[in-house]
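Next up, a specimen:

>
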Amino acid sequence: MPREAKTKKGRFVLRPASLADFQRLYVDVFSIAASLAHPEELFQSAAEAGVDAVFVMDAWHESHIPLARRYLELRRRYGLECRLSESKPAEAFAVELCESECGSGCAVVTRDYYAALKARRCAVLLFWRVEGLSPQP
């Protein structure tokens, strides 16, 4: 069932999606990894599930480099594809890659609504946390 979210960036219709609905995912690594207790889970679970994904990392400022190195090592360990965003935020670069390489059969995975504003042909899967809700059995 779709829900509407209103943020300072606009109104968005949110509805559940399955990763199986998409040929390929473009993952905003810094955004998603920041929401995990153990960032390695992002890479490990993608490798174990056999998800066709491109991990997009921020590298456009020197402050990103230490964390990018750590994530690059994890990406190497699990044999996953990666692209460095050297001139713009990773969520913007992920949208560009998704639309130019794949289009409507693919999706960007992020927590940033900015990607939803920029995407025209590809889907944007937004990870967001709702406080006070527990998983349903």
